[in-house]
Model the fold of this input.
Amino acid sequence: MSESNKIFNRTELTKRLVGQLKHEEAVVAGIGNTNFDLFAAGHRPQNFYMLGSMGIAIPIALGVAIAQPERGVIALEGDGSLLMGLGCLTTVATVRPRNLTIIVMDNGLYQITGKQTTATGGGTDIVAVARGCGIAASHWVHDDTHFDELIARRFDDGGPVLLAVKIDDKPGAAQTPRDPALIRNRFMKGLGIGSGGVLDA
Amino acid sequence: MPWSETFLDVFKKNDVRFISYVPDNVLTPLIKGVTSDNYFISVNATREDEAMGMVAGAWMGGLKGAVMMQTSGFAVTPNTLASLIVPYQIPAILVISERGTMGEFNIGQVAVARIMRPTLDTLSVENHTLDDESKLPFILDASIKQAVKTQAPVAFILSPLLTGGNPVAHAKLSS
Done:
């Protein structure tokens, strides 16, 4: 990892990401701060917020990407969550969905449980891990401009993209409503699936 | 019709196209059937909870799916069942080959086999033990339809009475 990478703030970076989504991209956000900040950035119909199942955000996003190959799909995950199930990166590399982008928010901490150090706070390099798993287009994000560039050309590599971002130790900026059936229903409606719309009049 | 072909047939009749699985000896004919048929989109997952996450995402994206695993693999999944599949009302179809009973040699599978049904019952996940080929088409078709209509998962436990059990175990037990 380059030492010159900017230390981002998760809340600000998530807002920056959401501001660049112009094609009803699906965004699947992992438990805790990752989905709190997605919610804080302003709810979109194509957002999916997790309430548990730590480490499963990327598999959920992969399932969406397989089901809807013409839609851009973004998985937002923290370093602690990703470390719980690194194997999913090998599955992503095998399936090679061109429409899937993984963004890993890496503060080297289990921030929400009391700032205990994760392996990435020691010596584990998420981008090196992802490349080793077979996701060739894996990058550390240097600064805002670099992030914008990488997001804008994320389909150019023809396969999945992983962007790892060093972030600070701040908590998420909001709390997502904890209503899983409603979250699922609205997400499906946002993806053009399901029959709940008739009750929304 | 062999049990694995009945599964493939009922999956097709119900538009169940996405299959995520962790390999298992007993499931081999079903896995071969799925991976060799272009109707299905199949993904080999590294863990069973990962496979469940994929099936949840695929369902929300409009693609019905099943997770295939063995008993020990099921024991990896309760957190994902309890915090994703059940509360978000995802009609995931779970196909579990029952290991650790009726002639296994591996004690590591035996205790795990005993936690499976109590775990499914505690989570109120509808589960059917399949031990009779003649009843298979009805149970599978009706239960998959019910799962989709009621937005709830369903588990099919494949008894050795149906599958013949683990071929490797037979050889070990008779030697």
